[in-house]
């Protein structure tokens, strides 16, 4: 490389750096025509839906008027102003804040969790005079709508925190509702209560067309701090243009949809807490040595004083120790001061008196001080949090075109900061936070283990394409063709049941036969024909037959039809028939053939249906459907067989029959049943019954009950039966009072 070439390269690099450091520039156009609310702009190329700014000059400043691009003709744009345009001159400058350095984009408005607790206008500008967030995600105002067939149905109850609404007009999650009333009746107060107490994580409030004073009053006095902390408020008052008010409503909806997309199935979080449940007590005693006595407290004080005066001489007479002491004398010199003489006389007298008196004085003083000590008794409560570990997995963000994009580094940092603040992160405690961003895969049902005829989707398609009669005709043809391959001694239904049981198991075989309506063809057509007749006609067919024939026929019919027919017999025969149904077991092949001949003679059909099941349960179900004389029939049966009648009464309504009740009756029953009793009674029940009960509770009650069921320990079957019996007693009491309805199968109500 030559020196000259290197010099040129360096110069070009320097110029490139200078150009890159230049501030962003805007491309300007100008206003050439204004007709009504439509204005024409030239010199700009912007897409429909984007925004542009028209500069309006006032006396002291330049005012920016926001406009929306609604059309174009050749290279000219048609825009609609979103604000007041009074004072705009022809040729006014027009530019787009979204057209920077020649790059154009559609209108972008702020979105994201950073908007919580803030008040914005319809253009995304903050009105609460608080500093804007440092990082603010902006996206287009309009997105692709969701396929309506992919939306979830409204199945869950939404607790709005207002008892009157929860009780009278229960709101479902995803439901739309309107609130219409005159002025001054409390609409804003009700809206504020719902915003504060609704069972939701984030509330978006759009105040469209309100007066400015009402907006401030709603935020400060109705929504209050606890409501604004989890809300985003969009204010588009009545004093702005209609276009901005419309945009405010659209913007609020866009914010709500953005939060919905972030929250539903887009985040998984696990929290592990190390908690110390040890309960400890501690006692400390501290002493303060070398304290100043003046600062100490006296506990006790003792003073002893002994005085003796004028003791009588004692001892051996003449001894020196027994002689009184002589007065002390001293040489006193004369002085010129005459006062000295006067002072000497009392002194001498005092000395002479002391010599004449003898004294003995003894003083003792004892003071005890309190020891300065401090006793501290500490009792530490159990449940001390020692460490928190939080793991969060976040789904990729959906782009406007439906594609998935990862969160950028700054967004991940924002989520990290939010999680730390939410959990109360403490570095001294040793807390840990792990956040991962990955693409979630929708759960797909694995159908590889199904045989093709077991696939529920295929079954639904078959039933939607072919009618039940078509399927029945195919099965009839298969039955006729298969008879040639089966030995005469073996029945076709039994052979089919045996074959399917060997291949799938007995339980699956019975379910498959029931699903495809495969019946015992020995008595198929006859009973099917009877089912198409009204009870009066069937009664005339069988009223003169043997009671055993009547018994078998009624056990094969629907319970409500059998009850109607049974009520037409006299009391004694009705009693005998019910007892025979209760004692009825499986029919033998001989009985099936005899019944087939009788039914063929009666209704001129062949191969009537004989998939019979007798016993106590059919008798109880028939009694359940009797419209009248039910109690009288039960009393007559007790006279013949007391024990059998009691068994039938117990089976008249079993616990599993709760699933067949209507929602209103089930809700009435649940109000009379204690929660603890219901938890025990639901142990071991089918999932369908449990779901039926939970769906008739509020969401909060259902969640508590489901959690209690999952955490409950195994319970003795006898205790479960006891609690179920209590609930059945409640059901019978409510049924006797006509507060609930037990008869459901096949009956219509108005």
Q: What's the structural blueprint in terms of helices and strands?
A:
Blueprint: H1 3-20, E1 26-35, E2 38-42, E3 51-57, E4 62-73, E5 76-81, E6 93-100, E7 108-111, E8 119-120, E9 137-140, E10 157-158, H2 163-168, E11 171-172, H3 187-197, E12 203-208, H4 212-228, E13 231-236, H5 242-263, E14 267-276, E15 280-287, E16 298-309, H6 339-356, E17 359-369, E18 373-380, E19 384-395, E20 397-398, E21 404-405, H7 409-423, E22 432-438, H8 456-465, H9 468-483, H10 492-504, H11 506-515, H12 524-531, H13 535-542, H14 547-556, H15 559-566, H16 571-583, H17 589-603, H18 616-624, H19 630-640, H20 642-651, H21 663-672, H22 675-681, H23 687-695, H24 699-711, H25 717-736
Parallel strand pairs: 8-13, 12-13, 19-22
Antiparallel strand pairs: 1-2, 1-6, 2-5, 3-4, 3-6, 4-5, 7-9, 10-11, 14-19, 15-18, 16-17, 20-21
């Amino acid at each position: 490389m030559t020196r000259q070439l290197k010099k040129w390269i360096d110069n070009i690099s320097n110029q490139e750096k200078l150009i890159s450091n230049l501030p962003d520039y805007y491309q300007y156009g100008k206003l050439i025509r204004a007709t009504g609310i439509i204005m024409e702009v030239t010199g700009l190329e912007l897409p429909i839906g984007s925004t542009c700014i028209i500069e309006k000059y006032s006396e002291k400043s330049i005012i920016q008027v926001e406009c929306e691009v609604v059309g174009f003709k050749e290279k000219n744009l048609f825009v609609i102003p979103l604000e007041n345009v009074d004072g705009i001159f022809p040729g006014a400058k027009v530019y787009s804040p979204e057209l920077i350095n020649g790059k154009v984009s559609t209108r972008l408005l702020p979105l994201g969790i950073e908007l919580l607790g803030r008040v914005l206008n319809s253009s995304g500008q903050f009105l609460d005079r608080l500093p804007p967030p440092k990082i603010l995600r902006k996206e287009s105002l309009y997105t692709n709508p969701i396929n309506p067939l992919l939306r979830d149905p409204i199945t869950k109850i939404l607790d709005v925190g207002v008892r009157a609404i929860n009780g009278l007009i229960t709101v479902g999650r995803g439901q739309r509702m309107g609130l219409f009333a005159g002025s001054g009746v409390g609409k804003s107060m009700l809206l504020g209560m719902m915003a504060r107490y609704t069972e939701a994580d984030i509330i978006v409030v759009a105040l469209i067309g309100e007066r400015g004073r009402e907006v401030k009053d709603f935020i400060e006095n109705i929504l209050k701090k606890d409501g604004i902390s989890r809300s985003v408020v969009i204010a588009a008052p009545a004093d702005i243009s209609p276009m901005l008010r419309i945009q405010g409503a659209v913007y609020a909806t866009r914010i709500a949809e953005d939060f919905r997309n972030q929250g539903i199935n887009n985040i998984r979080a696990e929290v592990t807490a190390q908690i110390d449940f040890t309960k400890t007590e501690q006692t400390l005693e501290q002493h303060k040595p070398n304290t100043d006595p003046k600062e100490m407290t006296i506990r006790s004080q003792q003073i002893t004083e002994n005085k003796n005066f004028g003791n009588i001489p004692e001892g051996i007479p003449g001894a020196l120790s027994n002689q009184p002491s002589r007065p002390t004398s001293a040489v006193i010199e004369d002085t010129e001061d005459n006062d000295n003489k006067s002072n000497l006389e009392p002194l001498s007298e005092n000395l002479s008196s002391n010599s004449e008196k003898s004294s003995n004085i003894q003083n003792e003083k004892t003071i005890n001080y309190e020891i300065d000590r401090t006793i501290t008794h500490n009792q530490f409560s159990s449940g001390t949090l020692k460490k928190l570990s939080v793991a969060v997995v976040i789904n990729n963000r959906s782009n406007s075109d439906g594609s998935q994009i990862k969160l950028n580094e700054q967004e991940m940092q924002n989520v990290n900061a939010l999680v730390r603040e939410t959990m109360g992160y403490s570095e001294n405690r040793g807390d840990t936070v792990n956040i991962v961003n990955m693409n979630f895969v929708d759960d797909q049902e694995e159908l590889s283990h199904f045989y093709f005829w077991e696939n529920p989707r295929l079954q639904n398609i078959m039933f939607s394409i072919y009618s039940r009669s078509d399927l029945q005709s195919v099965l009839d043809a298969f039955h006729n063709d298969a008879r040639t391959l089966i030995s005469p001694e073996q029945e076709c239904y039994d052979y089919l049941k045996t074959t399917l049981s060997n291949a799938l198991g007995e339980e699956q075989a019975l379910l498959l036969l029931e699903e495809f309506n495969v019946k015992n063809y020995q008595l198929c057509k006859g009973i099917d024909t009877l089912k198409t007749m009204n009870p009066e006609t069937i009664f005339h067919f069988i009223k003169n037959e043997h009671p055993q024939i009547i018994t078998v026929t009624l056990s094969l019919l629907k319970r409500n039809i059998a009850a109607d027919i049974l009520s037409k017999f006299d009391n004694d025969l009705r009693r005998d028939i019910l007892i025979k149904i209760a004692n009825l077991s499986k029919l033998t092949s001989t009985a099936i053939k005899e019944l087939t001949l009788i039914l063929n003679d009666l209704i001129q059909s062949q191969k009537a249906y004989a998939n019979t099941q007798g016993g106590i349960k059919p008798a109880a179900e028939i009694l359940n459907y009797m419209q009248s004389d039910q109690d009288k029939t039960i009393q007559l049966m007790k006279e013949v067989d007391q024990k059998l009648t009691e068994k039938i009464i117990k089976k008249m309504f079993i616990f599993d029959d709760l699933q067949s009740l209507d929602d209103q009756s089930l809700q009435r029953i649940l109000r009379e049943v204690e929660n603890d009793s219901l938890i025990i009674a639901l142990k071991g029940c089918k999932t369908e019954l449990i779901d039926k009960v939970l769906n008739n509770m509020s969401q909060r009650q259902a969640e508590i009950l489901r959690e209690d069921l999952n955490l409950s320990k195994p319970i003795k079957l006898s205790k479960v039966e006891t609690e179920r019996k209590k609930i059945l007693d409640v059901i019978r009491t409510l049924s006797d009072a006509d507060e609930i309805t037990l008869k459901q199968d096949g009956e219509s109500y108005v």
